[in-house]
Amino acid sequence: MENYFYSLDILYHARGEFMYGYWGKILRVNLSTGKISIEEFEEEFVKKWLGTRGFAIHYLLKEMDPKIDAFSEENKLIFSTGALTGTVAPTGGRYMVITKSPLTGFIAMANSGGFFGAELKMAGWDMIIVEGKSEKPVYLRIEDEKVELRDATHVWGKRVSETEKILRKEFGDKHVQIASIGPAGENLVRFSAIMNNGHRAAARGGVGAVMGSKKLKAIVVRGHKRIEVIDRKKFISVMREKTEILKNDPVAGQGLPAYGTAILVNIINQNGLYPTMNFRYGQFKYAEEQSGEAMSKKYLKRNKPCYACPIGCGRVNEMDTIGETEGPEYESTWALGANLGINDLASIIEANHMCDDFGLDTISTGGTLATAMELYDRGFLKQEDLGDAPPFRWGNTEVLHYYIPRIARREGFGSILAEGGYRLAEKYGCLDCFMGVKKQELPAYDPRGAEGHGLGYATDNRGGDHIKAYLISPEILGYPFKMDPHDISDEKVKMLILFQDLTAVIDAAGMCVFTTFGLGGDDYRDLLNAAFGYNFTTEEWLKVGERIWNAERLFNLKAGLNPEKDDTLPKRLTDEPMPEGPNKGHVVRLKEMLPRYYALRGWNPDGTIPEEKIKELGLEEYL
Amino acid sequence: MSRVKFFATLRDITGVREINVEGVKNIKELLEILYSRYGERFRKEMERKNMILVNGRNVLDLQGYETKIEEEDEISIFPPVGGG
């Protein structure tokens, strides 16, 4: 085999006597030396960190100086499964990619569904730590115990769909699962994604660019093992009970399967917090034309669930121009639509398809283009800067088709856009034109219409982000109960902290956050305890979530996070009242909430973590 | 005259995206009218959970089903929905 570089054959794949849910096995791949080795972990590690983000932050804090450049050889790229990944727990198929972000300079932790995570676990690996840099393009091939680094020169430069096709054929097994980068990751676009199953993305924070910097094109995996739980009969009965709750839940069982996440377009627009034209307004007059209702009617072919998912929110859409595609999800519909003043749904679907295939994060792609439109509109960016390229006029669909491939390939002005909205705004002298937090573009909710969610943006460990504490749930959707979006009492702040900690538990469990529409803290406790045979209380699991959140914060502080400067929101959201709609006159009262957030977290007034808290959470060894 | 807008699965039941109503006092009264006009399926869809907005503000943050409806108000009605 001429493509054969290095390989590792493990004849005996030992399992610790006590280890359930996991194998206790980590694959360490050093791309500088080509060395592949195995490490083990013990049950105490699971009790302390649970999985995914938790496992990873331990290794990042232990082995890496958080100050290093994200593109340096020293950065580590961790693929980690969760406690229930690969089991039959509802939605238990997720994995995360954790590394230092080249976009924010802080922690990146991107989560993806599909089938890759479960397959990795079934191959006998709980986690892969990729370190160093390869000189030439390689991919990692895993077939149970057989692990090899192979030459990837022939797929370097190829888009995601083609890469998957070639590597699948090469493997000779249609059930193989592939996580790969597109041209965007190869070209170090700061907001590039790692894709699996064509359209599932570990998208945010530029994890794909870190993979590109290491010249790792893909991880191809096939596993044949069954993940054991301590008491299979009991676990299946708990699984059935929780699956039933989800199936009977009006959102998880009916709303999401019927319309997908894009059902939110009309909801968020009617509630007046659908960010329009770079967050200038909170309602878009063409929202109906790009709504979940419209998309289902015009383009939906079928639903497509991820591994072990009873919800099945994924959409396969079909268009004359591009054939079958998946998505766009709510966030992508907005980022490539209303936020740019674009109303043509067909162009939005095509743009989403392009982002997936080139390996770009749709939210940051849209956010960066919106920054360019604002700069252009206000005269900071001029046509002479663009030459013959299309003008960044609000609503100009040509911008999508022209710039997305050029961002991924870093061609012409695309190369400047590839640095992300913050660096673009800085270059053209208007930082206020950038709508993001910690240099990452904001998602699809104007927090002037949901102030607790705004506090979530400001304090999120990975920067502008909605999914690590989705306060839209209580503030707008009414789950688990309705809270006034303009209430900023301690109750709201406490709710945000609970959401942050609980989401860390759900992520570490390897489950999907959409289960929260039906399940509560006690349900996750039941599933985890049934798998491991523990008697943890809900509070004890939440403590694990709190530990993860604080450890990530510790990483960020060590990386140079300045709370005063970085735990913040764009001026537009704190100083400029919403101009119209149901939230007219409102801003986010961040200054009133932030000190109480620090206090309720048990942190110092300056946003640092005091020694007592470090001790309480058992984080002394990471100081 | 007030405008009532329907979303998601409610549209399949009503067959229209919006209607106009006149002289309706509050949300409770409006729901009774809609239940009798669109029948059991509509009631069932709404009963477990729903979202009703008056001019973009959730009635749960106002006076619930007692929330008054004024002339020119826009009422948006959703079945249970979520996403992210």
The rounded distance between the terminal residues' Cα atoms of chain B is 34 Å
Question: What percent of residues of chain B are in strands?
Answer: 15-25%
Instruction: Look at the structure and name the CATH superfamily of the largest domain in chain A.
Output: Aldehyde ferredoxin oxidoreductase, N-terminal domain
The residue fraction in helices of chain A comes out at 40-55%
- Total number of distinct structural domains of chain B: 1
* Shape, per Cα inertia axes of chain A: globular
- Stated plainly, the CATH topology of chain B is called Ubiquitin-like (UB roll)
| Average predicted confidence as pLDDT of chain B | 94
CATH fold topology of the largest domain in chain A: Aldehyde Ferredoxin Oxidoreductase,  A, domain 1
What CATH architecture label of chain B applies?
Roll
Please identify which CATH superfamily of chain B we are dealing with. Beta-grasp domain
The description of the largest β-sheet of chain B is: 5 strands, mixed
Task: Describe the protein's topology.
The complex is a heterodimer of chains A (623) and B (84).
Chain A: E1 4-9, E2 25-30, E3 36-40, H1 43-49, H2 52-63, E4 77-81, E5 95-100, E6 107-112, H3 116-122, E7 127-131, E8 138-143, E9 146-151, H4 160-171, E10 177-180, H5 183-186, E11 194-196, E12 200-202, H6 207-213, E13 216-222, H7 232-248, H8 250-259, H9 264-270, H10 292-299, E14 300-303, E15 315-319, E16 323-326, H11 330-335, H12 345-358, H13 362-377, H14 383-386, H15 398-409, H16 414-417, H17 421-427, E17 436-437, E18 440-441, H18 451-459, H19 472-477, H20 490-509, H21 521-532, H22 538-559, H23 563-566, H24 571-575, H25 590-601, H26 611-616
Parallel strand pairs in A: 2-7, 8-13
Antiparallel strand pairs in A: 1-9, 2-3, 4-5, 4-7, 5-6, 8-9, 10-11, 10-13, 11-12, 14-15, 15-16, 17-18
Helix pairs in contact in A: 1-2, 2-20, 2-22, 7-21, 12-15, 13-17, 18-20, 18-25, 20-22, 20-25
Chain B: E1 2-6, H1 9-14, E2 18-21, H2 27-47, E3 51-54, E4 57-58, E5 74-78
Parallel strand pairs in B: 1-5
Antiparallel strand pairs in B: 1-2, 3-4, 3-5
